[in-house]
């Protein structure tokens, strides 16, 4: 071989394909301050909008007077619900089948609800105008506690639903009831509990929190009166869905709506749905004929855009005295706020909460979920998780620890005893899912060996003895968490949004010089798609990743897709990318066979081109094939080399992981120290290990925030008391622990490249690991379950209640 001829290893490395720690190409512009965000969009004559918001959580709107506001220099218009009624836009549909006020129509239902939209020549004038709008309210009784929402004397919140005994998801049993959703065999589950040696029952609440992305929600709307076309730049995780929703609401032809999602500063589920700001900015642009920008501030984002969680889960497990689980029974009271605006697939009003059986082989289970209205902001989005999966994981992982405590068993050993076994896959759960693949025992054993779990338990015993002797005021907790997540929404047989199947898409166009452009229906908000999508294509078709441009977020150029959230990008769009690349490769093989004068079956793929079997010197690279595709294709073949794939997955994917948190808590102050956190993830085939590690670090940091203090909390009159970063816990590098990451690889058998997704996993597994660490620390003092979040104050209160503090 010529010494200048690259080796196979060198050729593979040059591609920077799957498995390579390729540096993020996005960071070239981000680290130089050259990102292009919505607030960077500045158009000639652009106006600005700002909202008048309600100080009340529940009140009748008696009058809105905008006379003084219109006298403010620069203020051009004040839009109210009465204005929107003239164009039938006072209410808009939600993704969950409910309807929602765009602006307060007769009453307000939560604090900071949008009441009027002031349009002005600049943001400052708009803010001055907001201050001059006079709104007269008549306060009404408030519901903050979801357990009181269906009381006989509870105030009616949704007067627009008066007389409606059914909703989008079936019968309603109270004026503040939204739906009841059940799954599983109740009769068999009840029988299992009647026969059980041991049972546990606990109310496990997952408090209300918020995704709080670095960049808030915002948009710029520009209506061209001549063409009748509306262009919207916005912070949209699913731009095609927004285009369809705007078309349905505004009755504009969809081809005349152009939605562009530029760079996005984090989403985490917060930017999936449609907000009143989008509608009002669009209406204001149509009315004024000028572009209108709306940018919310941090307090508005935390108090009025989509929340997460607020699930209250009464959880029961039946088991034998040896620790084999025999049944699971869960009832959830789900607080949806003023409107049901969850971004869940249509057929799943409680998302995928029926993954609540977790990683365990429950023979029977039954789940019931009741959704209720309250005087809180609407939402219920998948904050760094698939739909309601983190709630389910927290529920079962806390419950397994509570069962272990009652049985006197080690939490890790109890889990090992009840895991689904490798030979049981594909595994059909008692609540209806088909788990694709898993090797739970291997992952758990690796976690226990890597952390020297046995030594940590021995140390804990010694520290507890020292605490009882009065030699230390610290207690030590080990938080074990083993989760199975369900991601990749999803198969059209059970997943849609507004009737649109949740497929995703990819279009690849190769240019004559061997470079190409790939467009997807996804939209990155920090996941590194421009890096990893090119890596999939590089491996599939042998073109270096640096020669593939990835483009997302423009509905005029990208194929229709359902966007990025809930760890669906790699399981669905990643598959579409691989399938489109394989179409390219199939055509390339025909061109290579023609040029090499052999039959297609005589060729074999070799890293970056095709080689004639048995004649290694007869080889044609993909770069050369790209050139041939534009000048010498086989007779009867169309020139060019491009392909489109719309991928409808046959099943979800099921990533899993084994986590351990080691924590010390000072009972006199409640101050905790996360001494060690180990996270093992199995996301199937690993596309870019460096990006995976970054995703895990980010998800764990959010899990830490949620478990240890992050909360949207209300007082009894409905005031949000954690409405800014002064009160809402946002960890910095100072508070954030050190993360140890590890992995196993169990590919998905049905995914084209075996990938499962990882972006949400660390949040799903991290929250119960932190909470289990706190609860494990306090368990030897007699505690069974302490609700999240576990901030210093609550830890001190728990210690005092348990008699550890005088």
Give an account of the 3D structure.
The structure is a single chain. With 806 residues, this protein is an alpha+beta fold. A 7-stranded mixed beta sheet has the order 3-7-1-16-13-14-15, with helices on both faces. The chain has a 5-stranded mixed beta sheet with strand order 11-19-18-17-12. A hairpin with a 5-residue loop joins strand 17 and strand 18 (325-335). The longest helix is centred in the C-terminal third of the chain and has 28 residues, at 569-596. The relative contact order is 0.12.
Proportion of helical residues: 25-40%
In terms of DSSP E residues, the strand content is 15-25%
Radius of gyration over C-alpha positions, nearest whole angstrom = 28 Å
- The total count of helices amounts to 18
End-to-end gap: 81 Å
Principal-axes shape call: globular
Largest sheet: 7 strands, mixed
SSE-based structural type: alpha+beta
Q: What is the residue-mean pLDDT, rounded to a whole number?
A: 97
Low-confidence stretches: none
Number of strands: 34
Q: Order the strands across the largest sheet as they lie in space.
A: 3-7-1-16-13-14-15
Please describe the structure with a list of short key phrases separated by commas or semicolons.
806 residues; alpha+beta; seven-stranded mixed β-sheet; globular
